[in-house]
Design brief:
Chains A, B: InterPro entries: CinA, FLAD1_M, MoaB/Mog-like_dom_sf, MoaB/Mog_dom. Chains A, B: This is Competence/damage-inducible protein A. Chains A, B: Pfam families: FLAD1_M, MoCF_biosynth. The structure is a homodimer of 256-residue chains. Helix content of chain A is 41%, strand content 24%. Chain A is α/β, with parallel strands linked by helices and 256 residues long. In chain A, the strands form three sheets. Chain A has a six-stranded mixed sheet with strand order 2-1-3-8-7-6, with helices on both faces. In chain A, strands 9-11-10 form a three-stranded antiparallel sheet, covered by helices on one side. A two-stranded antiparallel sheet of chain A has the order 4-5. The radius of gyration of chain A is 23 Å and the shape is elongated. The interface between A and B is large, with 79 and 78 residues.
């Protein structure tokens, strides 16, 4: 088992994500996939279709994390400027890629459709970029160094993610265990803080839930070492049992 | 009508948003609300429960936008470090706020519950911060300069948003019009680019949809001036009619 820590950021690009018009579906999907791959998603940014904003975010993220995954802005319309912005961030010319032109020309020819100037925009990418195959609609995504540029349409994004997964270096898989807890954070905060301190090789998250009347929590232990995970999970289970006992004996503390 | 441009960013804080465990509900809600208020949401970031990450993102965003709205990390557990991080970003001491202590002590006394050390954490905020009332569970959010710090639990977040809305300076309302378009981006990209160029006071977005077989688009015109909006929307409608005519006459272009 490798103990290498592999990190990632997602940069979702598109005015529609910021206007509330489109609820993003790609971030949650990729977050799930990265978790399973043992890659730590550390940051997400959503920016508008503005070159300066994309370039700045991309340069900040690609310097900081092992991988950066982008979604959106690689279609054929005037507001699709991700290829230009990525090229600018890397100081590379943005060109019509010969192989992408061939793939797209063939596809449109087979379908008896015109390979318009707009469609040719989808073949543009930074010089020397590697392709990410697009089995849904042909127009490829691309990779420059540690930056993976993918489409915004969820079906296409997910297909591209499937295609890049095998080449990503997975980190030591992060193990997680969820413990539903009937007590609110106010009841368990101090105890849980002590458990976290006693189990430094784990990360214990407390996620409050509210059903309209009462708070409960879901407690999630994360660790790379299964023994550390077990030890912390046992300590939490013991804490919940102790609170149950206190509640049964009429102690006023727990809200239940 | 004011023509002031008012901008905003959202900073969502929490490991659970990055692990794929919790799908964020606050960003989409606030994006909708801001759009209606005439405030331009320009950037969203999601960061982990790590002080350095929160401080850095907060300082970048608060310098750049009119308002910054945060969600998450103000509960009573050890991983709730947003109050500390916001204090650090502003160089202020993080203290138990006297009024928040009173509100919480009263609430727990009324409910016959102990005001534990963990619950007292929820009264901590940067010295001098203004409260954001929390009608759901009492523990207040807070405001420092242009930064609005709110809870992560969606019901509480939304109640806090309702409470701050009246004090936000709305910008000139951004008007939008959506035009469903049965043609894919490849068919309309060049024409639409020309329309965008001819209508510089508008922002025309093209959002591809894919039903598993074909692409269509939703075209969205945004403008602060209603006449500019009308003119661009008419040009787009004319474009769609022309494509319909071409299709009916057997022109091979449009994919339909």
């Amino acid at each position: 088992m490798t103990t290498q820590i592999v990190t990632a950021a997602i940069l979702a690009i598109g005015d529609e994500l910021l206007s509330g018009r489109t609820k993003d579906k790609n971030i949650g999907h990729l977050a799930d996939v990265l978790l399973l791959s043992g890659i730590d998603l550390k940051e997400v940014r959503i920016v508008a279709d503005e070159e300066e904003a994309i370039v700045e975010a991309l340069n900040a993220l690609r310097a900081r994390y092992t991988y950066v995954f982008t979604s959106g802005g690689i279609g054929p319309t005037h507001d699709d400027i991700t290829a230009d912005a990525v090229s600018k961030a890397f100081g590379l010319p943005c060109e019509h890629d010969a192989e992408a032109m061939r793939l797209l020309a063939d596809m449109y020819a087979r379908r008896g459709m015109e390979f318009t100037e707009a469609r040719q925009r989808m073949a543009r990418m930074p010089r020397g970029a590697r392709h990410i195959a697009n089995p849904v609609s042909t127009a490829p995504g691309f990779v420059v160094e540690n930056v993976y540029v993918m489409a915004g349409v969820p079906q296409v994004f997910q297909a591209m993610v499937d295609n890049i997964l095998p080449e990503l270096a997975g980190g030591a898989k992060m193990l997680t265990r969820s413990l539903p807890c009937p007590y609110g954070e106010g009841d368990i905060g101090t105890l849980l803080g002590a458990i976290q301190k006693a189990h430094p090789a784990t990360s214990i998250g407390s996620y409050p839930k509210y059903d309209g009347q009462r708070f409960s929590t879901e407690l999630v232990v994360r660790a790379r070492d299964p023994e550390a995970l077990d030890a912390a999970a046992h300590a939490i289970a013991a804490m919940i049992r102790d609170l149950d006992t206190a509640r049964a004996s009429g102690h006023p503390g727990p809200e239940a």
